[in-house]
Amino acid sequence: MTHPGAEEAREKLLVNLTPELRRDLRIRAAEHGLNMQDAAASALSLWYETTEPSAAVETRGAKSWGVFLPAGGPDRFTQECEQRSLTKVQGMAQAITLWLAAHPSPAERLVAQPTKRILVGNQKGGVGKTFVASGLAQAMAEGGLRVLLVDYDPQGHLTSRMQIEGLPEGGESLLTHMLGEATKHLARSLVALPHERFGGRLHVLPASKDAFLMDAKLALLQVGRDTCLARALAPLEDSYDVIVLDGPPNLGLAIDLAINYVQRRSGELIDHSGILIPVWSDRSSFDAYEMLHSQIATHSKMTGAVVDELGFVVNAYDARKGVGTRSFYEGWNQLTVPGVLGTLKDSIEGREASDYQVPLLEHAPDSPQANVMRALAKELAA
Ligand SMILES: Nc1ncnc2c1ncn2[C@@H]1O[C@H](COP(=O)(O)OP(=O)(O)O)[C@@H](O)[C@H]1O
Ligand SMILES: [Mg+2]
Known about the structure:
By secondary structure, this protein is of the alpha/beta class. The protein folds into two domains: 10-102, Met repressor-like (Arc Repressor Mutant), CATH 1.10.1220.10; 116-381, P-loop containing nucleotide triphosphate hydrolases (Rossmann fold). It has helices at residues 19-31, 36-49, 73-83, 88-102, 129-142, 157-161, 174-178, 214-219, 228-237, 253-261, 283-303, 323-335, 348-356, 360-363, 368-381, and strands at 10-17, 63-70, 116-120, 147-151, 191-192, 202-205, 242-246, 274-279, 309-314, 340-343. The strands form two sheets. Strands 5-6-4-7-3-8-9-10 form an eight-stranded mixed sheet, with helices on both faces. The chain has a two-stranded antiparallel sheet with strand order 1-2. Strand 9, helix 12 (323-335) and strand 10 form a beta-alpha-beta unit. Helix 1 (19-31) crosses helix 2 (36-49) and helix 1 (19-31) packs parallel to helix 4. The chain is globular and about 70 Å long. The model has no long low-confidence stretch (mean pLDDT 94). The site of adenosine-5'-diphosphate has 17 residues, from helix 5 and helix 13.
């Protein structure tokens, strides 16, 4: 979740919330065409107006969560909780539960949204970008969405782990399209995954070796460099519900173009598109995030783009690795904006899926990791 624009005077409220309620609120808000923070504010208003006491809500497993409320909102909430002799955790849980009951899922989304664009990004290598991008895309496709997965790392790990040889016959590379030199539609460059569970809905744009030259080639582009990725992918957007980019392991031009591509468009809800950040529970991941965050901030400042950081996926987490690991894990949870959307352990199934070049959900559909990917997909699909 990202800071709202500076023009809105909002205050951050920190309160613990269960991942289930957070997910439900996010999904339901999107279905009603509302930003999550507006839904939270509406939940609190509704709760303030409701005088009969609400039933206690289960709050075990609540994690720190941050939400921006209209000015004065956090103080008002604290007072109401005191008056009702409730903890803030219980107060928020009751307010959201009340709002969810008052706002059932509509049959259709109330506000149309552009194709969702998610960059799985972190310049640090080996943190699990490809693993998360791929698992998320698989889970979204399994759940019924039409998904395009773009191998945006010249090394092509995603491509090879999907057992794809490269561009299909006659396909032109993404870079060729970005340079405006392509002669055919970009759809000619896609490969559909054959597995039945994806129902033909999961397509991959494979990497191509020329992507190593991206910075050098694009430097020669006189006009339209900032938007060349957006322009290249635009012809495909109508055919997909979601476009997931597996980011490169550096902070060069390629990542800037991807940041530009996932920026919030006019009329787009907060956190509909943006950057999902896989991290580890260690110090170097915090340092890496600081650099990434600062690059996003610079990009926004220089271009006026608003870019949402969707959240972290803490990867390869193992509490047995010691106090340090556990305290860094708490550190990610305490950042709250954006928050931790999922936690993955390092597992044999995950390794095997990569090494055997089989998609995780196909190789180990019932594994805990596959289920984390499904939960992530459910929350981010909203
Ligand atoms: N949670 C996990 N469990 C098992 N293997 C993992 C997990 N996360 C990543 N891996 C494996 O670790 C290696 C590095 O991950 P990868 O996704 O390629 O990182 P990145 O794309 O950030 O460089 C890959 O072989 C990947 O399959
Ligand atoms: Mg990778």
